[in-house]
Write a structure and sequence with these properties.
Length: 136
């Protein structure tokens, strides 16, 4: 199935594996919370056991270095796409309010980005992420 939109998560390449997984989880949650229409229906197995809903379209995962993440952020904002973001400072916090304070304390140009997620029209996402490769 071809979707009109694309969901992409960009993770900084030099993170520990647990950090990459953590960042991808938080950013995907940000997409689901901001775009409830992308969440599908509950699942149910053949025994009638019900399970939670998932995002109903693929999420593409890209790798990037710090400069590429900053460039993707600026490209997103220039195209009026509001991204979810995760900064290195957020690894030092323990709850959502502290995460927001960690981001608020730093000017955009100085954010130490480790992850970014966007959902927009396919062509717009392609322009935002131009030059990035899938995470390996």
């Amino acid at each position: 199935m071809q979707f009109d939109t694309k969901i992409a998560v960009v993770i900084r390449n030099d993170l520990e594996v647990w950090q990459k997984l953590n960042v991808a989880s938080f950013l995907s949650g940000g997409i689901a919370a901001s775009f409830p229409e992308c969440v599908g229906q509950n699942y149910e197995d053949g025994s009638g056991t019900r399970y939670l809903s998932l995002i109903g379209q693929p999420i593409l995962i890209y790798g990037a270095d710090r400069a590429q993440l900053s460039r993707a952020l600026e490209r997103a904002l220039a195209r009026e796409v509001r991204p979810a973001l995760y900064t290195e400072d957020m690894f030092k916090t323990t709850h959502d309010a502290a995460n927001r304070e960690a981001v608020r304390a730093v000017a955009r140009a100085d954010l130490n980005l480790v992850g970014l997620a966007v959902r927009a029209e396919r062509k717009v996402v392609d322009k935002i992420l131009d030059g990035l490769k899938f995470h390996s």
